[in-house]
């Protein structure tokens, strides 16, 4: 052997083998090289552990001599103790045993893994190494020791003995090597053998059990379990080596191949059993398809095992077996969750099998200790698997039997039920077979009159009568059937009863099969009564035919009469339609006829109010004007009712803001609120969308009517307008609105009648409060047209609540509520308000701004809590002026004194018209005041202003228009009524317009054709040619499409506006003419500007400039005009002057300027400006420069409003020198002009002539003449032009 190692070829071969095993050597630890196993005194067995060294022969050419060479790199296995996986080359093992005793030791080296192909064992002998062979590729008889496992005897003399093993296998290289004392090895074999055969006996018993169960029950589940048990038992015997030892010891090839074949067969039968046991074919088709795929793969692997490479097939079968077991286990879980309760046996069985296999594998690989459980884990898993499967099959069969019994019982019950139904059916049921009756129910036997025995004994043909529909027809049907002809399945027949009577029936036949034989099922229905009824009907038909003929003659006669009646009714309808048209025309004409004098009355009243009048005359004219407007409102109500009655009340759908409509309505009643001292509260829920799509005019009309009623019937307390959201859809919202008052209330018995036409609570209501009784009826019609309802409720404690709902579209905008900046929200807001409703609304407003709000009902409560520190730090206080006990100004003053530097900013609230309180507040240093009802936007703006945050105003896209912008425009006024001409001319000339007139449409067309006009005001109803025809001619014949034409008429019926626009007119102004509306329309269609809004430049006659009060205070209209002109000229530069004085800290000069402005403002009726000036004067008196600067913006704003109002009046011309007094020689000229104006009945021109004459007489100190001319003036004001002429003639001669 030494010589062999030294040859070159042997050296090269040794080097190649050495390099081929490098990959495996890297897995070994070289630190234990040269370790030995001490077997001294060995009594049982030893695990060689690190003493067993290994070397992989990668090329398969290593000889024993080369293996025994000291340089061969044997090494111990460091990571795994027994398994090397699948290897396709030999593995060499080397073990050095040391016997330190003095006597030889007989040992056995065993490898307890029988499926190894070949193990060659080399032990020292007398003449070198002795070679012994074992493995399942060699006959069992050549084994050194007749044992199921691979074992080799070894004699161990004292000292060290080294043995070698060469292992080759195409399966798993699993090598559980142990060293035994020879006697202990035999004793362990004798101990384990009974247990092994006990296991096989149990498996055989389970196989016989399933065999007998299959033969007894013919249930394939038992057959598949039997085959699975046998294949698993045989595979276990193969794997343990007993099959090779006892069954086929002389067939090494089969012993080698049987391991794979039996494993594949076991998998196949386990899948078959699982498919049958779990019932996947019907219960879970997807799992069934997966199992069928596994069956095919198992068959393919099993069939290919003898022909393919064993090494590859063994790996495939092993992996497939593991996957199959996992699939079956998971399938059992799925089926159990799907309701198959017997699957619990199946799941537990596979789990225990896997657990036992894991214990055995763990013991084999040294992962768990070697004990009884790890040694017999696989066998116990096999046994429990088959046992639980058998129990599961038994449980399943018991359940199936139970279900089958229940099904049989249900079937029997169903059969009894249906037999009862058939036996007791109303129709007869007969089953005939071969000409004999095999079944008949009670109905058919009762129909024939025979008892059961006699009925079944009679031939079928004997039941039929000797008539054409009896026996003869039945015999013909039988003949036709025998010939193969088709006969009807349903036919009428006549049966002969036992008592000889004939019964009419309908028979329906159906071919059936009973017991494999053909039969006929017949349903027999008794139609005797129907036949009798048919005869009766036929007789009646004859009678009806006779009556029908006579009836047709009568119908023809009546038809002629009806046609005549229809003609008369159509004539009546036409007359009714004509009456409706006449009614509408009458209403339109009456509207025109009523509104024309109303226009004159209101217009002339306005004009006279602008002249010099005595206080009593001014009072009388005020009554005339207010009464005229009340009458106009009544006319409007009547016209609205007429439109509703005619169904012509139309609604617009335009965008509008609910808050603006409510604010506009409440503004109308501020004066009523102040006069009656009634708290007016607006409470709109934040959930209500503000931007709506509907008719704001109708919305406002309903609210104004309800609010007017509330103020009419309420003398004290409060009136609240609430709005909430009932339901919100994608595009529509249902709103609930209510007006609640604390007035006299409504009698519940008469509440339903309130909304009827011309109905009020009782007769005294009309006498005490007035009204037509149309307002609420109009409201009901409008609300119902808006998709809602209206009703009235009694309020507990007094008063009433008028409620209505409406369904309306809304603009889908998610505008966030206004929030004050974070730094402003550091302090809380104190709200002091005695009215609970107002307090709730204001608290919600402030909370929506982002504030924390604390509340108090009175000043004393607020001060007490503030001084005690009960409130959080306050940054703002909103206080009502009219508090019980301590009023709002005193409360605010006390808060400021108590708080010192911590005092909150103050906003006061109160009703309109409390100017003296405003002055008092300003003198106390409180400059921010809000009028009730407080608007949310106004409160937010004031909060921002008081914290010093400037308000961002929208810049108007169109500059505001004033009367000065209209001066010089040429206007053609087309009006046939001279009084209306006079009123309109005065208005237009007052704004500086050049006015020409025409009396009818034809004159207007001629004047437009020859002259240029900037605008035409066109009446509709005129003689010769009306306004519509004139407009059409101007547009079409004269081709003047750009000339603005404005309709100006007393027509008020629906459709007038549309007809005007269709004729080519640009806009529409109804009579009586409202001065502001006319100004707005003219400005819009000429200069194209926008009218100043009330928030920017309030018009005269409001709280900014009281025209009537100014004229009354100065006593002369001419003087008032002059004062306004001088005021306008003097105070245009006042803000610049006052700002310079404040910058120069000239407090005395500031006081003088403010004092002067206060007096002038009071004289001209500018009360708010006078209040601002008084506050500035008071501040200057205290020499408080800082407060004076704070008041300057408010004073400047009030002054600008007054100047804008003066401009809006259209009266003031540029200041000029006064005209020289009339000379005495001009007296006759003035008298002559006065006479001419009196003859023309022109009151305005006549009054102007009187004023000129009075001026002339005053210069001449002619007192008597002055008295006479005043009498003339009085007669003119009374419209007594003839009397004025007579008095003038007497005075002048």
From TrEMBL:
Show where the PAS domain sits: 414-453
Query: Its catalytic activity?
Result: ATP + protein L-histidine = ADP + protein N-phospho-L-histidine
Give the EC number.
Answer: 2.7.13.3
Name the domain of life.
Answer: Bacteria
Annotated Histidine kinase domain residues = 589-810
Which residue range or ranges hold the HPt domain? 1116-1209
Q: Which PROSITE patterns match?
A: HIS_KIN (PS50109), HPT (PS50894), PAS (PS50112), RESPONSE_REGULATORY (PS50110)
Q: Which residues form the Response regulatory domain?
A: 828-947, 970-1086
Which InterPro entries does the UniProt entry name for this protein? 7TMR_DISM_rcpt_extracell_dom1 (IPR011623), 7TMR_DISM_rcpt_extracell_dom2 (IPR011622), CheY-like_superfamily (IPR011006), HATPase_C_sf (IPR036890), HATPase_dom (IPR003594), His_kinase_dom (IPR005467), HisK_dim/P_dom (IPR003661), HisK_dim/P_sf (IPR036097)
Annotated membrane topology? Multi-pass membrane protein
Phosphohistidine found at: 1155
Q: Which Pfam families match?
A: 7TMR-DISM_7TM, 7TMR-DISMED2, HATPase_c, HisKA, Hpt, PAS_9, Response_reg
Q: 4-aspartylphosphate occurs at which residues?
A: 880, 1019
- Location(s) in or outside the cell: Cell membrane
Q: Mind telling me which residue stretches traverse the membrane in this protein?
A: 197-216, 223-248, 260-278, 290-308, 314-336, 348-370
Q: List the residue ranges forming a coiled coil, or say none.
A: 397-424
- The protein in question is named histidine kinase
- Native organism is Desulfoluna limicola
């Amino acid at each position: 052997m030494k010589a062999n190692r030294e040859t070159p070829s042997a050296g090269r071969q040794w080097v190649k083998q050495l390099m081929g095993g490098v990959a495996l050597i890297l897995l070994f630890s070289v630190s234990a090289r040269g370790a030995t196993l001490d077997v001294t005194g060995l009594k049982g067995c030893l695990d060689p552990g690190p003493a067993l060294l290994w070397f992989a022969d990668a090329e398969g050419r290593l000889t024993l001599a080369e293996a025994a060479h000291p340089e061969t790199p044997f090494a111990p296995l460091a990571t795994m103790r027994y398994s090397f996986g699948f290897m396709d080359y030999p593995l060499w093992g080397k073990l050095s045993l040391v016997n330190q005793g003095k006597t030889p030791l007989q040992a056995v080296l065993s490898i307890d893994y029988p499926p190894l192909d070949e193990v060659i064992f080399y032990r020292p002998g007398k003449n070198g190494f002795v070679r012994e062979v074992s493995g399942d590729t060699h006959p069992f008889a050549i084994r050194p020791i007749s044992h199921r496992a691979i074992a080799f005897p070894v004699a161990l003399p004292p000292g060290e003995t080294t043995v070698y093993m060469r292992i080759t296998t195409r399966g798993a290289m699993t090598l559980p090597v142990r060293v035994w004392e020879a006697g202990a090895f035999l004793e362990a074999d004798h101990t384990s053998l009974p247990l092994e055969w006990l296991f096989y006996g149990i498996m055989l018993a389970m196989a016989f059990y399933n065999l007998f169960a299959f033969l007894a029950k013919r249930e394939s589940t038992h057959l598949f379990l039997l085959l699975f048990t046998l294949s698993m038992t045989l595979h276990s015997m193969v794997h343990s080596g007993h099959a090779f030892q006892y069954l086929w010891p002389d067939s090494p090839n089969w012993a080698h191949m049987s391991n794979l074949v039996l494993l594949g067969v076991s998998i196949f039968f386990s899948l078959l059993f699982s498919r049958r046991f779990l019932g996947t074919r019907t219960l879970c088709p997807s799992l069934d398809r997966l199992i069928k795929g596994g069956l095919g793969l198992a068959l393919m692997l099993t069939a290919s095992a003898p022909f393919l490479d064993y090494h590859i097939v063994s790996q495939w079968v092993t992996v497939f077996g593991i996957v199959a077991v996992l699939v079956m286990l998971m399938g059992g879980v799925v089926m159990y969750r799907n309701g198959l309760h017997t699957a619990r046996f199946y799941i537990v069985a596979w789990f225990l099998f896997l657990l036992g296999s894991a214990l055995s594998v763990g013991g084999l690989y040294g992962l768990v200790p070697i004990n009884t459980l790890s040694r017999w884990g696989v066998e116990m898993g096999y046994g429990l698997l088959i046992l639980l499967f058998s129990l599961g099959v038994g449980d399943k069969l018991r359940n199936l039997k139970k279900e089958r019994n229940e099904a049989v019982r249900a079937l029997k019950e169903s059969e009894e039920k249906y037999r009862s139904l058939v036996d007791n059916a109303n129709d007869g049921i007969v089953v005939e077979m071969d000409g004999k009756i095999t079944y008949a129910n009670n109905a058919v036997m009762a129909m024939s009159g025979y008892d059961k025995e006699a009925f079944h004994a009679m031939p079928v043909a004997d039941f039929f009568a000797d008539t054409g529909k009896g026996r003869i027809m039945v015999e013909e049907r039988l003949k036709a059937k025998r010939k193969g002809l088709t006969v009807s399945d349903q036919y009428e027949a006549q049966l002969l009863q036992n008592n000889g009577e004939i019964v009419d029936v309908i028979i329906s036949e159906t071919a059936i099969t009973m017991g494999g034989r053909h039969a006929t099922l017949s349903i027999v229905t008794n139609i005797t009564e129907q036949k009798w009824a048919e005869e009766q009907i036929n007789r009646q038909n004859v009678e009806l035919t006779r009556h029908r003929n006579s009836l047709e003659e009568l119908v023809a006669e009546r038809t002629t009469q009806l046609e005549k009646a229809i003609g008369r009714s159509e004539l009546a309808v036409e007359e009714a339609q004509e009456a409706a048209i006449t009614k509408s025309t009458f209403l339109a004409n009456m509207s025109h006829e009523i509104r024309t004098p109303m226009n004159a009355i209101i217009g002339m009243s306005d004009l006279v109010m602008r002249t010099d009048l005595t206080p009593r005359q001014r009072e009388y004219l005020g009554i005339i004007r207010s009464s005229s407007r009340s009458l106009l409102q009544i006319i409007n109500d009547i016209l609205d009712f007429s439109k509703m009655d005619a169904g012509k009340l139309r609604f617009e759908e335009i965008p509008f803001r609910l808050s603006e409509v409510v604010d506009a309505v409440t503004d109308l009643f501020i004066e009523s609120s102040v006069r009656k001292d009634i708290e007016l509260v607006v409470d709109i829920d934040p959930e209500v969308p503000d931007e709506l799509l509907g008719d704001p005019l109708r919305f406002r009309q309903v609210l104004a009517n309800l609010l007017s009623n509330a103020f009419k019937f309420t003398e004290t307390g409060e009136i609240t307008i609430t709005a909430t959201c009932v339901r919100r859809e994608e595009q529509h919202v249902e709103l609930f609105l209510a007006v609640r008052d604390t007035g006299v209330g409504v009698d519940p018995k008469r509440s339903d009648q309130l909304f009827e036409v011309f109905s009020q609570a009782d007769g005294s209501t009309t006498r005490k409060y007035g009204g037509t009784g149309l307002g609420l009826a109009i409201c009901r019609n409008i609300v119902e047209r808006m998709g809602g309802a209206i009703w009235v409720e009694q309020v507990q404690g007094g008063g009433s609540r008028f409620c209505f709902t409406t369904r309306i579209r809304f603009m889908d905008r998610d505008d966030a509520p206004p929030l004050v900046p974070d730094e402003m929200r550091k302090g809380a807001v104190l709200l002091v308000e005695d009215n609970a409703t107002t307090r709730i609304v204001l608290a919600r407003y402030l909370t929506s701004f982002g504030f924390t709000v604390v509340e108090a009902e009175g000043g004393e409560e607020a001060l007490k809590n503030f001084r005690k520190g009960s409130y959080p730090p306050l940054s703002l206080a909103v206080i009502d002026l009219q508090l019980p006990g301590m009023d709002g100004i005193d409360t605010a003053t006390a808060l400021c004194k108590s708080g010192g530097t911590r005092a909150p900013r103050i906003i006061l609230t109160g009703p309109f018209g409390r100017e003296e309180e405003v002055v008092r507040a300003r003198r106390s240093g409180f400059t921010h005041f809000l009028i009730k009802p407080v608007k949310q936007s106004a409160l937010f703006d004031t909060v921002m202003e008081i914290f010093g945050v400037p308000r961002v105003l929208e810049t108007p896209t169109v500059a505001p228009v004033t009367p000065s912008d209209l001066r010089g425009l040429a206007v053609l006024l087309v009006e046939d009524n001279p009084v209306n001409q006079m009123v309109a001319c005065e208005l237009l000339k007052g704004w500086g317009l050049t006015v020409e007139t025409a009396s009818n449409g034809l004159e207007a067309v001629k004047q437009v054709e020859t002259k240029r006009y900037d605008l035409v005001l066109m009446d509709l109803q005129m003689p010769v040619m009306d306004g519509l025809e004139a407009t059409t001619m101007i547009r079409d014949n004269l081709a003047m499409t750009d000339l603005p034409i404005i309709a100006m008429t007393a027509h008020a019926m629906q459709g007038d506006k549309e007809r005007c626009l269709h004729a080519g007119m640009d806009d529409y102004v109804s009579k009586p003419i409202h001065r502001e509306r006319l100004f707005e329309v003219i400005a819009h269609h000429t200069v194209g500007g926008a009218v100043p809004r009330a928030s920017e430049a309030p018009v005269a006659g409001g709280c900014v400039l009281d025209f009537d009060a100014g004229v009354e205070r100065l006593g002369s209209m001419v003087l008032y005009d002059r004062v306004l002109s001088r005021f306008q000229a003097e105070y245009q530069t006042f803000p610049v002057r006052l700002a310079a004085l404040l910058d120069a800290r000239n407090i005395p000069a500031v006081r003088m300027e403010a004092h002067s402005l206060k007096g002038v403002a009071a004289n001209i009726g500018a009360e708010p400006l006078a209040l601002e000036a008084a506050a500035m004067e008071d501040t200057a008196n205290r020499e408080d420069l800082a407060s004076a600067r704070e008041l300057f913006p408010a004073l400047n704003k009030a002054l600008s409003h007054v100047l804008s109002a003066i401009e809006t009046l259209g009266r003031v011309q540029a200041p000029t020198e006064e005209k020289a007094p009339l000379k005495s020689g001009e007296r006759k000229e003035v008298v002559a002009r006065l006479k001419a104006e009196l003859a023309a009945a022109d009151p305005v021109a006549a009054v102007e002539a009187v004023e000129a004459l009075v001026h002339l007489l005053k210069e001449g100190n002619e007192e008597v003449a002055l008295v006479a001319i005043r009498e003339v003036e009085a007669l003119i004001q009374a419209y007594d032009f003839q009397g004025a002429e007579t008095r003038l003639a007497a005075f002048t001669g």
